[in-house]
Amino acid sequence: MVRVATSVDVAKLAGVSQSAVSRTYTPGASVAEATRIKVMDASRKLGYRPNAIARTLITRKSRMIAVVASYLDNQFYPVVIEKLSKRLQSDGYHVLLFIAEANQESDELLMQLMQYHVDGIVLLSATLSSGLAKVCAASGVPVLMFNRVAQAGGTVSSVACDNEAGGRMAARALLEAGHMRIGYIAGLEDSSTNRDREAGFNAELAAHGHRVFTRTVGHYSFEGAQVAARLMFGRADATQRPSAVFVANDYMAIAVMDVLRGELGLRVPQDVAVIGFDNVPQAAWGGYSLTSIEQDAQAMIEATAKLMLAQINDEAVAAQHMNLPVRLVERGSTGKTV
Fold first, then answer.
1. d(CA 143, CA 229)
2. 8 A C-beta contact, residue 29 and residue 21
3. pTM of the entire predicted model
4. What CATH fold (topology level) applies to the domain 62-161+297-325?
């Protein structure tokens, strides 16, 4: 049997202490550059690989953060997962990804992932009951909700954008363009994102003496948005359909534009102006040129990482609720040139 090299062997060959070897392989630990070079060189010569599982047993820290995601068809979330993973890796943490069913509480899945002794949990558009929030708090595992406003009590932090302000921006842009018949295609009725976006949208319309001309629900799904678009714009009489529509996210807005142009023969923006929400990369594609309310994903990720790591390293950090600003990115779907 081939003998596996240990940290003691590396320390002896490198001429350093065993603790120096341990610090070299501990993210965030202090170690002199000269020492690090000696340890890495000795490790390569001996074929040494540190045992992360053994280190977990000693430190009681897995350096893993669970990310529970749903709606991966929505182009916003793959971008978020990639950026968040890279950001956490820069601090020596790794992401353990779990997939939840859309619009369902994640309690059962979270109870499973707690068995992996993760150091923290980030919920991407997933919900959490108040009961499980208390369980997580009692176990010392911080939980943070991303792109949702926490409804599970004061123990759960959240990072979201100012969805209400985004809804107001969408209404203002369409009103300033002269539209009088403005529709709204909602996402999930009970989600905080849809609720706040629609509230801001309605409030801004009302402030200018208007109200939504017609409303349908797309359930944050591509197929649902297609059905909603057919219901809203399938009438032959142009005066019975909106001249503009605010769609609760870009994923649905792209589906709506496909139906408008491909099935109903309507022109965007000449017949119907369209605004989405998120400003996903595909919104800038020439085939869509979609005007959108931009969530600053990078700023949200940075806030998420800082807050999560602070709560992991300091149990005294209280739950926080961050609401980051949004901006309107105007493109061809509302008649703007790019």
1. 37
2. no
3. 0.80
4. Rossmann fold (3.40.50)
Query: What are the residue boundaries of the structural domains of the chain, listed by start?
Result: 7-50, 62-161+297-325, 163-295+328-334
Strand residues in the chain grouped as ranges (E):
64-69, 94-99, 120-124, 143-146, 157-161, 182-186, 214-217, 244-247, 273-278, 291-295, 321-324, 326-329
Six-digit token string for 7: 């940290």
pLDDT tens readout for residues 160-191 = 999 999 999 999 999 999 999 999 999 988 88
The two structure tokens encoding residue 244: 């503009």
Strands across the sheet containing 291-295: 214-217, 182-186, 244-247, 273-278, 291-295, 326-329
Distance of CA 10 to the CA centre of its chain: 42
Question: Residue 224 and residue 216: Cα distance in Å, rounded?
Answer: 10
The first and second tokens of residue 151, run together, are: 């409804």
Topology annotation, domain 163-295+328-334: Rossmann fold (3.40.50)
Share above pLDDT 70 across residues of the chain, in percent, rounded to a whole number:
82
| Bond into 142 cis (ω within 30) | no
Residue 135 has pLDDT above 80, yes or no: no
| Residue 48 scores a pLDDT above 70 | yes
CA-nearest of 249, 250, 247 to 233 is: 247
Q: Name the phi and psi angles at 174, rounded to 5.
A: -75, -35
Question: C-alpha angle with apex 15: 10 to 19, nearest 5 degrees?
Answer: 65
